[in-house]
Specification:
Length: 104
């Protein structure tokens, strides 16, 4: 590449050097949405692992929660961020875990 293109690319790629990724997401107006989705993906992963360890099927989980199989699918969907604390508590108990929530 010639010097002019290299200089331009360097400036472009370094425009956020020293900035915080959360700050970038905040500037874009999507910090809360991205954070909620990341938390739900992690929770869905943890629930799936807990179900696997406990050998609990989705059908059994639905029975324990007194809900439908499709509702369990909805709860385990990593993109669905609309889950209540009460339901999270029930989910944790149903797979033999405790729910822990903290602000950091």
């Amino acid at each position: 590449m010639n010097e002019r293109i290299c200089g331009y690319m360097g400036n472009f790629m370094n425009q956020h050097t020293g900035s915080d990724f959360d700050q970038f997401l905040q500037e874009q107006g999507i910090l809360e949405e991205v954070t909620a989705r990341a938390h739900k993906r992690l929770l869905a992963l943890q629930l799936s692992e807990a179900m696997e360890q406990s050998k609990i099927t989705k059908t059994q989980l639905a029975e324990r929660l007194q809900t439908s199989h499709s509702q369990v699918d909805h709860l385990l969907d990593p993109n669905n961020t609309s889950v209540t604390l009460e339901l999270l508590e029930k989910l944790a108990h149903a797979v033999g875990k405790q729910l822990r929530i903290e602000l950091t």
